[in-house]
Amino acid sequence: MELLKEEMNLKQEYAFINMTEEEFSSILKIAKKDSQFEKAFKKLINSYLEENMSLTIMVNYLKNIKWNSHTSIKVLKEKLNSFFKMLDDACYVLTPSDAEALLEQPILKKLFEKYFSDKKEIEEKVLDRFTDNNTQLEILCDKYMEQNKILKLVIEEENENINSIYYQEIRKSKLLTAEQEIELGKRIVEGDE
Q1: 148: how many CB neighbours lie within 10 A of its CB?
Q2: For 79, how many CA atoms within 13 A lie in the half-sphere containing its CB?
Q3: Contacting residues for 174 by C-beta, under 8 A, at least 6 apart
Q4: Are 119 and 153 in contact (CB under 8 A)?
Q5: 94: alpha, beta or left? (left if phi > 0; alpha if psi -120 to 50)
């Protein structure tokens, strides 16, 4: 089956999947039957990825992202969002071995080298702002930190610190006996401060 120019552009856009021409043509044929071709096509591609996701597909995808050594952390993350979206759309969660292999890819290597630079420890809430609730990025961060022996510091919230100090202080004081409590209660009722 010969592909039209628009179809060839789609094939090129999804070349990272390494789909055979026959598989791609089959997806196109089914999608063309739908009145919302693009939506149907993407749904079929996601189904294909869900069934066939592999490290090869992920590596190919990352290799197709355009960037250079001067690209900022923010721009690298934005470019990688499409990669994370692809994984999420395919209902795929990175495994530790995926993360280990993917961290060898230049774009991810550069992102983490720039972000962590020479840090040996990082506060959890700073890391949370970087990962921004992206489970895939969290998995990659955890693996990178493990490989590079970077500690995640968990800092208690201010309210927790205040409560902790309060409880430490009251532990230093002796508790009243039942008789002392009754006596203190009577004195308070009588107005003795």
Answers
A1: 14
A2: 18
A3: none
A4: no
A5: beta
| pLDDT, tens only, 166-187 | 777 777 777 788 888 888 888 8
| Cα–Cα separations (whole angstroms), residue 144 to 95, 98, 137, 178 | 13, 12, 10, 58
Question: How many angstroms separate the first and last alpha carbons of the chain?
Answer: 96
**CA 108/CA 84 separation, integer angstroms:** 12
pLDDT over 70 (residue 127): yes
CB 105 within 8 A of CB 61: no
Q: Which long-range contacts (CB under 8 A, 24 or more apart) does 118-126 make?
A: 119/150, 120/149, 120/150, 120/151, 121/150, 121/151, 121/152, 121/153, 122/150, 122/151, 122/152, 122/153, 123/152, 123/153, 123/155, 124/152, 124/153, 124/154, 124/155, 125/155
Give the list of residues 6+ apart from residue 131 with CB closer than 8 angstroms, or none.
Answer: 137, 138, 141
Q: Are 150 and 144 in contact, with CB atoms under 8 Å apart?
A: yes
Q: Which residue's entry shows tokens 């230049």?
A: 106
18, 57 in Cβ contact below 8 A? Answer: yes
Q: How many CB atoms lie within 10 A of CB 7?
A: 16
Q: Is the pLDDT assigned to residue 95 strictly greater than 90?
A: yes
